[in-house]
Amino acid sequence: MSKIATLADLKKRREEMKTGLDIRTKALDPESIVQVKVSMATCGIASGAKTIMEFFLEQLDRRNVAAVVTQTGCMGYCYAEPTIEVKLPGQDPVVFGYVDLKRADQIIEKYIKTGELVDGIIPVNYQIIDLKE
Length: 133
Hints:
Blueprint: H1 7-27, E1 34-39, H2 42-46, H3 49-62, E2 67-72, E3 84-87, E4 94-96, H4 101-114
Parallel strand pairs: 1-2
Antiparallel strand pairs: 1-3, 3-4
């Protein structure tokens, strides 16, 4: 741990600790909030999953969406990286592939906030659903 030398250091440490506490508190009952899992295996990281995870962490908090964002290993969809799994309370998880920043924004605004499906869902049969067809 770094030393606390100024009031600004103390405030920064307080916010870091508060964030950690918020994550642990939310994790006590994960079924009651949105869960986002970002595939962070080697293929996911190479495809930009770190940026996608940072986007979800920042934007869900900024948009006041109660959610837990975690990383997971390979989901088996290496061809569609970056991939994420989103589980809304009381619903089955949905996996999205080829998630870039634009699609991540759509997932938050349409799927997470309103339940409306967006392009890029990977169904059980490993095909992409294109809602434009």
